[in-house]
Design a protein that fits this description.
Shape: globular
Distance between the termini: 28 Å
Radius of gyration: 30 Å
Largest sheet: 22 strands, antiparallel, barrel
Structural class: mainly beta
Number of helices: 16
Number of strands: 48
Length: 920
Amino acid sequence: MQNQHDKPARALPVLSLAARSVALAVGVMATLGNSAWAQEEEINPKLQRVEITGSAIKRLESETALPVQVITRAEIEKVGVTTAAELLARVSSNVGGLTDGASINVGGDQRGFNSANLRGIGTSSTLVLLNGRRMANFASPGDDTGVDLNNIPAAALQRVEVLLDGASALYGTDAIGGVINFITRKDYQGVELNVYGGKTDEGGGGKRTASITAGIGNIAEDGYNVFAVFDAQKTDRLSTAQRKFIPNLQIPQRLGHLLSSFTSPANIRLTSTQRTHLQDNGFLLNGQPITNRQINFAIPNCAPPANLYLPNGTGGVDGCTYDYMGDTELYPKSDKQNFLTRGVLQVSPNHQLYAEAALSRSRTYYVGSSARVIGYLDYSRVPQLANAGFDTALDEDGEPVSRELELRMRLNEAGMRTSELTSESQRYVVGATGTVGAWDYDVGFNHSVNVVKDRDTHGYVLYDQLLAGIADGRINPFGPSSADGKALLDSIQVNDEVRHARGVMDSLDFKLSRSLMKMAGGDMGFAIGGEMRRERTEFRPSALLMSDNINNDAAPEGGVATSDSRKTQAIYSELLMPFTKQWSAQLSGRYDHYEQVGGALSPKIGLTYMPSKQVLMRASAGKGFRAPSLSDLHRPTVYSSTATLPDPVYCASEGNDYSVCADNWDTRRYSNDKLKPERSRQFSAGLVLEPSQHWTFSADYWNIKRTNLISEIGDDIILANLNKYGDLVHRDEDGLIDYIELRKENRGAQKASGIDLTADLHGVKTAWGRFGARLNGTYVLNSKIQTSPGDDFISNLNRFVTDGVVQRWRHTITFDWDQGPYSASLSNTYSSSYQDQNSAINVDDGSVVAANRVKAYTLWDMSGAYAVSKQFKLRAGIQNLFNTSPPYSNQAFFFISGYDPSYTDPRGRRFYASANYSFK
């Protein structure tokens, strides 16, 4: 994604100088051309030795030759994205990261967390940096550990560098998937104002942003620079009712069994004996004998459009089904504010002091459907059943039939369930850099904090008083409630910060580098560095949450707050050896030690060979080490449930009738303080060709294997392999599933491999202007997980398994044109088709969802800009030019049904415009 067309003459020298560089080092974050820097140096031809991002050795900045995607500020502006999460969605190697769309789930885990996931091997294995240093992870405990992209100050970015080679000696070998370094502006002078406005074609999901950037002082002339940027963004809510593609997905007809049996008017869930008693006494519903345990006296009308009569839906032939996809949230309302400032003081010709502060707040407002309630009512209060005689009837064992009816109702009168998720981040860095003798040094202290507040604000009610109101008749499950009932619902509304999490990271790091001796290809470079880090996490559930009295928001097991901390030490070194003008090598290694967990040495070797100025070959091999996160070790137990799955034991006694033996089984998800670190090994080999000053091609093969994988066994895998995992299924005295135990363990292995391809056409001058084009694509060869040693590997390549899919091919293509004050850009992002999950079960008739193959997903964006003057620039664009809708999917993992929200965008065609004015 480099933009080198402005200075085409630099292309050949870049590769020529690269022959004197290293190939790969542990975690080296260098660029195949570092285009932005190269262009600056063309203006100032005096090459200076500087530190390349990701390496601790200072060298000529054009020496690097590593497989890194560089996304410049100009490219960010062209595609009209305003957040780090939107930007990384366009990176082909980023697969399955957490997004606002995928996190929409009432009571969902780690809502509000936007993350990166390089290679699709896990958010926890992608290291996100700001100016080369870590940030505090998203504080809310959960399955994923990583930096919340909402806390990245997008308006302050100068560029983003994505290292596609994992395990970094400089930053940490936990970066198994790779490193993403967000680099802010430095030494900026002047004032810059920027405003942005966007709206969608069909309404909803609009966005407004504004930022101001200011800087004063020239380091070279004044001896100091102070820079600051403030950015504010607001995004509007988007609901299913605002999108035509939702009804076109035909979710009730195709996926009725993924909808809800909690309806208004309420479904009555009969016991087996109650149903048998009614059948024996000739009870008719809608003129027909009942066949199911679930009945509703509103059939066949069922109070549409939200409540439907779907004989093949979850309500069954005798009940109603609630279509929550008729009016639920697809994209949440949010507001974000970011402030970053950086100051540098030149205290002497060889020494600088620097300080950096970054503050951010992201507030996301989640709106779900109205509350689900399991209530209970005496049968005599239901007029249609008042003469059913449940109080005198006996079952086949001579036991009385229960008078009490179980209700599955939708609490519309309490309003939609609304939550407010706030993620706040603070980061302060102070340090010094300079030269002492032959040594370059950099030392810094980093204090980072992330606080997550999760508040239930409306639609959640006190469960005990709700049950009492249903039982005594004040709340009507089958129609409008009385005035007393509505007053009761208003009085028991919950407005409480139910979860409060805080994470703190303090670190002190240093690095020293120097040249050791002359070699045939240049100076031998040496570096050594280290880091001491302390992590602390706190999780504090509210007293009300722990009372387990909030309807639809269950208390975590244990009933106490948690507070955990640990210390980490690391030391690393790096050796650069340019043997000849054609051959160079880099050796590096890092030793990490985590309190409670242990340590490991992670070595790496890299080679580059350049037989000519037009050809560069590179290869690397190394090892990685990822310690379990504090959440993996000490997370509170979480109660949840599976998708609809069959229990083979129960099914064996029921003739494999899925309508009886399949259900949403309860789960309990446990952390594990006995976890050991994951180990990894990485290998890569690549080729770069530059046949002319206008063309650059590269292909890089990568291969990653992780062992001692920290994971839970998927609930679907457990039930499909009870002979091996049956001890994880806990049953009651009748042999029915009580709950399934999902516990973090060191299990099995993971393999992933593929090829990254780039093609860059730059600086082609014609009579009609200057043209350029870039392709960045990833072709995945292998992506699979072994649940336990000795088990077969299960592939999620081009196949949705358990919680997601890794597509075979993803790419971004961009075409650029400019002439004088005018410029335009056209870009395409593409994800290939794949086999759907194809596993959802209809518990009414026992059928399995029709098999489906998810279609390829391709989006086109277009923008144009006009430079009114050197200070004033206007841009306008269209995102999703052809209004492409997310393709149909029958996946049953995400709350959203009908499509996969993890990589698609439901906003449709969007128009935006921006204006930028700078005072220099």
